[in-house]
Amino acid sequence: MRKIQKILVHEQVSQEIQNYIQEKEMSDGDKLPSVEEMTHMFGVGRSSLREALRSLEALDIIQVENGKGIFVRDVNTFRFMGKVKIEQERNFLLDTLEVRRALEGQAVRLASKRINDNQIAEIEACLEEYRRQKEAGDDTSRIDLAFHRAIIKATGNQVLESVLDSFSVMYERFFNEPLGDKQLFDDTYPFHITMFDAIKAHQTEIAMQEFYKMMDCIENKLKSV
């Protein structure tokens, strides 16, 4: 049995400092807050902070100058690390998308044959709320996830629903700021409507065509970031 890897405090602090550099859009030579200020900012002890600073200095992200302060040293290195992180998440999402095509595709096929009037009304209300939030510029990730779960529920297949539930932690990555962008997949909204219209009309082949258009749109978005 594999042991659960612990995330050490200094590793968390190191990540928070990198996030701070990114959020403040800092450049080479910019000065970071003092050790005292950062212990209060991150709510950690001086030893954890100093260990985080040592690790960042070893990566050439910062430079600690005694008596002067802590300075951003190489933004290009920081950007490279950020790019690697994005690449890792993109690959994870693309792998997950392949599983979605198989499992959720089957859900769309079954839902188009089995959906009932109550489920149709539920999904119509879901789509209306999706439209309202999208037009208001709100975060649509939760309502988007609710739409897909309603389609899965409409299959009437408890085993398939259970399999997708067990897959939910990875599945939800698509709806939780994928690659740091809550609106990344907003272009898929029209396919939600056309796919559902086909499901409601029990037009299985059209529903599948629209589902694959949605999946292709997501894949293209991921590859273009």
From TrEMBL:
It holds the Pfam family FCD. Keywords: DNA-binding, Transcription, Transcription regulation. SMART domains: FCD, HTH_GNTR. Coiled coil: none annotated. This is FCD domain-containing protein. The keyword DNA-binding applies. It comes from Paenibacillus glycinis. Signal peptide: none annotated. Residues 7-75 form the HTH gntR-type domain. It comes from the Bacteria. Gene3D superfamilies: GntR ligand-binding domain-like, Winged helix-like DNA-binding domain superfamily/Winged helix DNA-binding domain.
